[in-house]
Amino acid sequence: MKCSVSNSNPCSPQHFNGPSAPSPSLNFKPCSSLQYSPWSGLQAWRESPLNKNRIWGPNGPQSLVVDNCDSSIGSASSLAELGALVLSTSDPLTKSKLSHLAYSRWRRENLPLGSVSDPPSRLLGLSNPNCFDGLHSLAVEVSPKEIPAPKNSGLPLNAYMLHNLAHVELNAIDLAWDTVVRFSPFSEILGEGFFADFAHVADDESRHFGWCSQRLSELGFKYGDMPAHNLLWRECEKSSDNVAARLAVIPLVQEARGLDAGPRLVQKLVGFGDLRTSNIVARIADEEVAHVAVGVFWFVSVCQKMGRAPCSTFKDLLNEYNVELKGPFNYSARDKAGLPRDWYDTSSSKMQDKSDKQDKNEKLSLVYDRLASIISMESENSSLNRPPR
């Protein structure tokens, strides 16, 4: 079964029941008796004020007012155009800063969503070195197999792990804005909430990258001091023609892996003796729950509009796009984000199937017992009513 929404039109109306299709409900059942339960904090996250905690102070996040050093942000007239500006920016710190300024301006001025028909590609190199010290550049991207081992990276273990996380967060900025910009022509079908959520995600990710970059600087390093993998953007490009695939591959697989890896990374940093970095990582991992929850919510919504079951559609999409699910899974964090276990864990599906089969057998056994009882009673009545010989 192919699950492409459309190669030429990822949100084509013929693949939906219409823009008025119902939003995900608590009673929606994916492919088993397990129910989809949205993250309890999703609405509070959506309604939260603009997060200005752009730096990591002695005791945690601290507020910092970000000044605009790029006049181009003021020339954009819609959310889609703002996102395109961020995607066109190459310097990591400038990108992080512009991401926050873009989201801030959209919220403050209530700009329209707008539409960009040809999303820009990511650029490499410096875009505006006058805004910063001119020393920051994108890391050289290589395949995951080419990433150097910690002992060969030239970085101590804590900086090595932090650099890897910084790369994930920087890519996540582009991933979220690309989702906003690429699918902006289909805002009437997807709804304004879709774009508001992913612009919010982009703002969160820009704050996370800022914390990582700050801490790397405190350790005497910077982003770009070692190569980084190209997995995240490769997955983004693969799903560029299909909104359902984008939601499945990025929030529900790649970002969900962050929920799995976060606690393990925190433990390693504590073991290394770097409590400050471990606190940053723990906070980022906790905030990533919202991003997975957003992905689940909109994936279920899109599936409902297409008239498809989310669980089987998710699995079919991963098979179609050759995306591998890897454990171990952080079940508690995934459960909190509302990601049903039978979507990604085969053992959960098998247990559910076994439970359903056992329940069915118990019901059949009960029916058989009742039939046997009825037959026995009929036999007794028949013998009592039989005339004596």
TrEMBL record:
Signal peptide: none annotated. It comes from the Eukaryota. Residues 351-363 have a biased composition (Basic and acidic residues). InterPro entries: DUF455 (IPR007402), Ferritin-like_SF (IPR009078). Residues 343-364 are annotated as: Disordered. PANTHER family: DUF455 DOMAIN-CONTAINING PROTEIN, SI:CH73-314G15.3. This is DUF455 domain-containing protein. It comes from Quercus suber (Cork oak). The lineage of its organism: Eukaryota, Viridiplantae, Streptophyta, Embryophyta, Tracheophyta.
